[in-house]
Automatic annotation (TrEMBL):
It comes from Penicillium solitum. Homodimer. Residues 3-105 form the Stress-response A/B barrel domain. This is Stress-response A/B barrel domain-containing protein. Pfam families: Dabb. PROSITE patterns: S_R_A_B_BARREL. InterPro entries: Dabb (IPR013097), Dimeric_a/b-barrel (IPR011008), HS1/DABB1-like (IPR044662).
Length: 113
């Protein structure tokens, strides 16, 4: 069953627009750079994201969001825990973000058994 991985970021106010754009570009580039060790091919099904434009005013400081889809829980787990490209990217965000929130879900699964 596929997994949808949602990443929400709050960049530090002092971070330049160019640095934010670079981080966002690198986040989206993970779709091509994250290679599965068994297949030696990219394994992220899709990746999209952008800057917040909500009019509701309940973002809690979050400024950017990304949605990454994986074919399976195993692929998401490899990405989150082991993939060197993803881990290096995450480490590169530490000096430029104030907050990171991540939530994953499987479509139609509302209660975990």
């Amino acid at each position: 069953m596929s997994v949808t991985h949602i990443v929400q970021l709050q960049f530090k106010p002092s971070v330049s627009a160019a640095t934010i754009q670079d981080a966002c570009d690198r986040m989206l580039d993970l779709k091509q750079r994250c290679i599965h060790p068994d297949t030696q091919k990219p394994y992220i099904v899709s990746s999209t994201g952008g800057q917040d434009c909500s009019v509701e005013g309940i973002q809690g400081g979050i400024t950017h969001a990304f949605i990454v889809e994986f074919e399976s829980v195993a692929h998401r787990d490899y990405y989150a825990k082991t993939d060197p490209g993803h881990l290096a990217f995450g480490a590169s965000l530490i000096p430029i973000v104030d907050k990171v929130q991540v939530i994953d879900f499987q479509v139609g699964v509302f209660v975990k058994e």
